[in-house]
């Protein structure tokens, strides 16, 4: 019992939902507690949906509810207000007063574009609203919706839903870890929002663009919604599970993936329905489609190498399959010996390939639907239990041979009864091995046609390595992935936009339920079809290929009770902070009842009737009085309605990370509005583009993203967490990004008189002038900051090593002068903060080497000063690696003994050793490098070690470059930072 239960709890290959991919489980103390809790849980009654689960409100079409009559008709600006006012009046709570114009433009600008308005825009709106508020608001909404910034803001909301990432997650080193297609998908989403692509079309393209648009259409990029998830180390079952999850939760708010291992415990979604959708996605291959023509010779060379190698490896694998038909048939008698897909399988050319064993299983399963001209006898005999062979095999053989159309060669091979099923498999093996030599014998051509048929299990599928990798020995798989990686990297280098689409294969057998979620335990066959809870008991199987286009149309249908409601709720959620349904991606029985169910239904129907226009829905919501009301309402009932679900006032919204970062860039005049293309790391120096274009690495998500509650790119995210942690404050107080933004903001007002400067800073940050009290506080703050004494730079550390420049005096055979290098970066000594810079140019010394100055007058000198008298030895190697230029010269010079060693190296190295050297306290040894004849590629490696009988001084471990002096913000920069850290900047009300 317990063994079976553990198999249920931790089935092989279930990945992130099922527990242990590859069947390798390690139970920690917490894991054992979880098992104990599960044992206790299973002892109680099983959790199942209630009998009336199908009657749940979300599974029925939105009702045609007319907007109700209200008393406060003066507060009605759109029909939305009637639904909200009805509940407020029933609770006896008046709505909040309208927000002032300056608050409203800031709220709308952040809501639609993610950016604050400029001070000039705010002033113009305040003036226009004073004359005609309704017209001014309508014009503002239209302007914001027409801005390219709108698509960037709302595209990012959808990218959370789509679990967007620029990388695949953990993959083997043989595979390129970056997605080629990700930036094109992100840019397509942004463009779709800007173009107000109807939402039903938006969904159709993301699920089935390959069936709806031409082969060279840029809309193919839309399929990144399905194909952009984690790769799960190539385990197909987990990849498909992720796709089912993002499609059903993202578009319909239904947690279908919970039915992978058992019937859904809460919603009326049986496991059979999960595997109906599994079959839809199982029937497609991933295919990378470049979306721009290119003429790159290197790319063409890599693609040709990949194509030729794939063809060769497919033919080699196919030859092995055809030669071992008997063994693959024998494997059908012992399928449990051949594991399902797993990242831990290492296969040689001599092994039976488990994926091919399963392909034979599926082929034979499909062939059994009618009398097969070749494998009819096999089907009949393999079905006979070994214990009944003596009595049942012969009748089965005779029935099979009596079937019309049986291949004559097969009939001859089974003219006598084989001793057992294994001998039957061996006879098929011999037939297939002899097929080529049989020439024109009756039936031979049919055998050969089967062996070469692309749909036959004796042929490796003609597709990309991402789809057919499991059909090769491990060495071939790794070789092909390396070649694919080289192609991918070249496409990335070239910046070629690409789409990763799903290409449908010829329909295979209907999917089978995996009992307990175990692929190795297939159960009943189910047709590919839509969910019964939505399509009804009379639903029909999909007929068009694998059914993916039919699935997309069922999801995007006006008759689907969930799709429009879910999107309307997502948009409401992002405008008000909480959806009408609090769980935007779960409209099932566990979801709370909507706060305004009639409003949700009315909006869902309105959305469809408006042509699925997202911009029209924004316009409707933002035009409402409930959206335009103040965030302050002293009469709100905070006891009975602590979460403001009645919407008695507008909820104050904290800016998310993208809004904060982008706003800090914009108010200082640094925001780069370039759109599209491959992103950079969010905190890269010089990256001033909008955060939506920052690189998202799902395996190594930047700590800054995690600190600020960025969406987890591993999975579909409906609602971002909102935390307040010390790291957030430290980022703004001490982080270089915040300091740079404060400097930029201060520079934008440089040169203005102090009073005017304060007002201008406030206008840039808050879109308003400073109050009299704020102006006085600013003056006092700047004066106090000016009076402060900046901290002294850290003193250089005490060490035997010193770093400077000098010159090799050729006639005198000595070092002429030693001038310390003045600037330490923390990892190097050099002549100036800018590198190269100062009088010494390229002169630099690091722990392991460095670069000489621009001329021989500025050789770099690593000086060791003897701390005591004694005898020392010197060891080390001077190395110059580049083939360019003419190399460098190196010298070891003693202040007491003169020149000890010298060498000239160019793309070579030289030992620089000295033994038994007597030194007195204070003597110096200088390790000098200068240019040979010209300045060109003169970087070098040289980390000498000085050794005394009981002590060693390593140039590497003894390297000491103190950090640079603290980069202190100046008084006006400090004041700019104060404004950027304020609640007024970080919140929108």
Query: How much helix is in the residues?
Result: 40-55%
**Euclidean distance between termini CA atoms:** 58 Å
Low-confidence stretches: 1-45
Strand content: 5-15%
Radius of gyration: 36 Å
Largest sheet strand order? 7-6-12-19-15-16
Comma- or semicolon-separated keywords:
single chain, alpha+beta, six-stranded antiparallel sheet, disordered N terminus
Task: Provide a descriptive summary of the structure in words.
With 989 residues, the protein is α+β, with helices and mostly antiparallel strands. It has a six-stranded antiparallel sheet with strand order 7-6-12-19-15-16, with no helix packed on it. It has a five-stranded antiparallel sheet with strand order 8-9-10-11-20, with no helix packed on it. Helix 15 (325-331) runs antiparallel to helix 20. It is flat and about 110 Å long.
Q: What is the secondary structure topology, with strand pairs?
A:
Layout: H1 2-9, H2 15-18, H3 29-43, H4 79-91, H5 101-113, H6 119-131, H7 133-146, H8 148-161, H9 182-194, H10 199-208, H11 224-227, H12 236-252, H13 271-282, E1 284-290, H14 297-323, H15 325-331, H16 354-367, H17 376-382, H18 389-401, H19 408-413, H20 421-434, H21 444-452, H22 465-468, H23 474-494, E2 498-504, E3 512-514, E4 522-525, H24 532-535, H25 548-555, H26 563-576, H27 597-609, H28 614-622, H29 625-628, E5 653-654, H30 657-667, H31 703-707, H32 726-734, H33 736-747, H34 754-766, H35 772-787, E6 801-809, E7 814-820, E8 823-824, E9 829-830, E10 844-845, E11 849-851, E12 859-865, E13 870-875, E14 877-880, E15 888-894, E16 898-905, E17 908-911, E18 914-919, E19 924-931, E20 940-941, E21 945-948, E22 951-954, H36 971-980, H37 983-986, E23 987-988
Antiparallel strand pairs: 1-2, 3-4, 5-23, 6-7, 6-12, 8-9, 9-10, 10-11, 11-20, 12-19, 13-18, 13-21, 14-17, 15-16, 15-19, 21-22
């Amino acid at each position: 019992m317990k063994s079976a239960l553990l198999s249920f709890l931790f089935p092989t290959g279930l990945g992130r939902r099922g527990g242990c991919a590859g069947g390798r489980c390690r139970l920690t103390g917490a894991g054992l507690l979880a098992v104990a809790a599960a044992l206790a849980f299973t002892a109680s009654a099983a959790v199942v949906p209630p009998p009336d689960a199908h009657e749940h409100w979300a599974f029925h079409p939105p009702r045609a509810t007319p907007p109700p009559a209200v008393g406060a008709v003066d507060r009605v600006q759109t029909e939305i207000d009637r639904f909200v006012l009805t509940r407020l009046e029933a609770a006896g709570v008046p709505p909040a007063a309208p927000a002032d114009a300056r608050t409203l433009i800031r709220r709308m600008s952040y809501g639609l574009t993610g950016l604050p308005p400029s001070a000039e825009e705010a002033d113009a709106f305040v003036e226009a609203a004073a004359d005609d508020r309704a017209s001014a608001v309508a014009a503002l909404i239209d302007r914001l919706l027409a801005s390219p910034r709108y698509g960037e803001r709302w595209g990012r909301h959808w990218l959370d839903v789509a679990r967007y990432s620029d990388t695949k997650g953990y993959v083997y080193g043989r595979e390129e870890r970056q997605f080629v297609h990700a930036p094109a998908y992100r840019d397509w989403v942004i463009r779709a929002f800007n173009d107000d692509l109807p939402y039903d079309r938006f969904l159709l393209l993301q699920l089935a663009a390959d069936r709806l648009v031409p082969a060279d259409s840029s809309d193919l990029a839309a399929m990144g919604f399905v194909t952009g998830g984690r790769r799960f180390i190539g385990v197909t079952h987990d990849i498909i599970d992720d796709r089912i999850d993002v499609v059903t939760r993202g578009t319909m708010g239904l947690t279908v993936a919970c039915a992978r291992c058992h019937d859904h415990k809460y919603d009326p979604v049986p496991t059979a329905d999960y595997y109906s959708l599994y079959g839809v996605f199982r029937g497609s291959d991933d295919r990378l489609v470049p979306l721009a023509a290119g003429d790159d010779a290197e790319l063409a060379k890599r693609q040709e190498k990949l194509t030729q190698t794939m063809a060769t490896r497919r033919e080699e694998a196919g030859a092995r399959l055809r030669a071992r038909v008997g063994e693959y048939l024998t494997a059908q008698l012992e399928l449990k010996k051949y594991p399902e897909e797993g990242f831990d399988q290492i296969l040689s050319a001599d092994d039976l390939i488990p994926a091919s064993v399963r392909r034979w299983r599926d082929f034979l399963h499909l062939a059994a639907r009618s009398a097969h001209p070749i494998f009819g006898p096999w089907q009949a005999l393999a079905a006979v239990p070994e214990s009944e062979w003596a009595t049942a095999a012969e009748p089965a053989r005779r029935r099979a041979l009596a079937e019309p159309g049986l291949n004559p060669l097969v009939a001859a091979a089974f003219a006598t009864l084989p001793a057992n099923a294994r001998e039957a498999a061996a006879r098929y093996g011999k037939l297939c091995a002899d097929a080529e030599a049989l020439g024109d014998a009756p039936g031979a051509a049919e055998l050969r046609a089967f062996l070469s048929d692309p749909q036959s299990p004796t042929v490796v599928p003609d597709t990309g390595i991402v789809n057919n990798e499991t059909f090769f020995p491990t060495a071939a798989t790794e070789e092909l992935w390396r070649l694919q990686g080289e192609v991918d990297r070249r496409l990335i280098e070239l910046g070629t936009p690409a789409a990763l689409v799903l290409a449908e294969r010829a329909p295979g057998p209907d999917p089978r339920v995996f009992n307990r979620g175990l692929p190795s335990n297939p159960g009943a066959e189910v047709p590919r079809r839509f969910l019964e809870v939505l399509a009804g008991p009379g639903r029909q199987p999909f007929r068009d290929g694998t059914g993916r286009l039919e699935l997309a149309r069922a999801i995007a249908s006006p008759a689907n009770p969930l799709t429009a409601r879910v999107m309307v709720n997502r948009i409401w959620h992002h405008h008000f902070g909480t959806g009408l349904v609090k769980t935007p991606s779960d409209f099932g029985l566990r979801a709370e009842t909507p706060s305004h169910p009639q409003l949700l239904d009315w909006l869902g129907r309105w959305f469809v009737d408006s042509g699925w226009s997202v911009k029209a829905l924004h316009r409707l919501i933002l035009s409402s009085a409930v959206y335009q009301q103040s965030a302050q309402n002293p009469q709100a009932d905070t006891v009975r309605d602590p979460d403001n679900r009645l919407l008695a006032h507008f909820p104050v919204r904290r800016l998310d990370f993208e809004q904060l970062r982008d706003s800090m860039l914009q108010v200082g005049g640094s925001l780069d509005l370039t759109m599209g293309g491959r992103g950079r790391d969010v905190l890269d120096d010089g990256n001033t583009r909008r955060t939506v274009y920052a690189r998202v690495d799902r395996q190594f998500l930047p700590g800054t993203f995690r600190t600020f509650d960025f969406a987890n790119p591993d999975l579909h995210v409906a609602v971002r967490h909102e935390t307040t942690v010390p790291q957030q404050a430290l980022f703004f107080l001490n982080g270089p990004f915040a300091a740079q933004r404060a400097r930029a903001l201060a520079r934008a007002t440089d040169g203005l008189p102090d009073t005017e400067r304060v007002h201008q800073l406030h206008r840039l940050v808050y879109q308003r002038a400073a109050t009299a009290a704020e102006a006085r506080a600013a003056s006092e703050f700047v004066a106090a900051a000016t009076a402060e004494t900046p901290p002294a730079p850290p003193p250089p550390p005490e060490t035997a090593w010193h770093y400077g420049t000098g010159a090799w005096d050729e006639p005198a055979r000595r070092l002429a002068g030693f001038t310390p290098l003045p600037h330490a970066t923390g990892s190097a000594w050099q002549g100036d903060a800018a590198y190269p810079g100062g009088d010494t140019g390229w002169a630099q010394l690091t722990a392991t080497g460095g670069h000489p100055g621009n001329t021989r007058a500025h050789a770099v000198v690593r000086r060791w000063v003897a701390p005591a008298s004694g005898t020392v030895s010197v060891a080390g190697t001077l190395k110059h690696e580049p083939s360019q230029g003419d190399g460098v010269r190196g010298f070891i010079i003693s202040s007491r003994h003169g020149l000890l060693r010298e060498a000239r190296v160019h793309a070579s190295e030289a030992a620089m050793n000295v033994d038994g050297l007597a030194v007195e306290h204070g003597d110096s040894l200088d390790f000098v490098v200068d240019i040979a004849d010209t300045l060109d590629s003169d970087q070098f490696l040289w980390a000498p070690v000085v050794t005394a009988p009981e002590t060693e001084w390593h140039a590497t471990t003894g390297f000491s470059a103190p950090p640079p002096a603290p980069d202190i913000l100046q008084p006006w920069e400090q004041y700019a930072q104060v404004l950027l850290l304020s609640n007024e900047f970080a919140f929108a009300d």
